[in-house]
């Protein structure tokens, strides 16, 4: 009688994720600028659809906890679309690329990484802008959806009311925390070997990120694009100065220092 087959592992061990991220980085770094731009625009589009879904699911729910949970479910859908399609997201790259820096020589990466970072940010912005404009043109939503959007945007722009250097620094710090969580969502997604195994941690971690109102540059591009396309929002100059730019700086620091570096240091002996 033959021995029973060994069950297929449902997920990778944590120390196996960094080599997987290195392979993912190599895939992105081998792309040409136009390919990166297209994938980044898709990433911006998906994150904007996730922002829209978070509003549509949560409007009409008055209890704060269930409302935030539904917003997390809606937004995690956009992130899940990005993970499955291999669309490029600026903040995901802030984890994948630093993780690769620690495993590859500088000559292997050179300027390609910085080219990817820059094009991904621009592409995410373009994708969010285009989808926001098309949604505003094509769809008519009830007033309560627009009110929910205004409430979300207002929370993201709350730092501007202070207007101090300390407030700007707090956005950077919130961006660090935000991409620590989004980076961990990408980390856990890389661990999963099934669609279910990828989605559950993404949903849980992204829901925590949404509930905490942590700052995330591409996510906020999505919400701002939806708001600005309908004549609302703070205006792009204020949005960039008091959210998108400082949040993006924090996202780079958070993905690098709070995700990639600690796991590389802890597991570096297994990477040799």
UniProtKB/TrEMBL annotation:
Species the sequence originates in: Aliiruegeria lutimaris
Protein name in the entry: Formate transporter
Source superkingdom: Bacteria
Family: Belongs to the FNT transporter (TC 1.A.16) family.
Membrane topology of the entry: Multi-pass membrane protein
Any one Gene Ontology molecular-function term assigned to this protein's record: formate transmembrane transporter activity
A Pfam family matched in the record: Form_Nir_trans
Lineage: Bacteria, Pseudomonadati, Pseudomonadota, Alphaproteobacteria, Rhodobacterales
Keyword annotations of the record: Membrane, Transmembrane, Transmembrane helix
Ranges that cross the membrane: 36-58, 78-102, 114-141, 167-188, 195-214, 240-267
Annotated Gene Ontology cellular component terms: plasma membrane
Compartments, record wording: Membrane
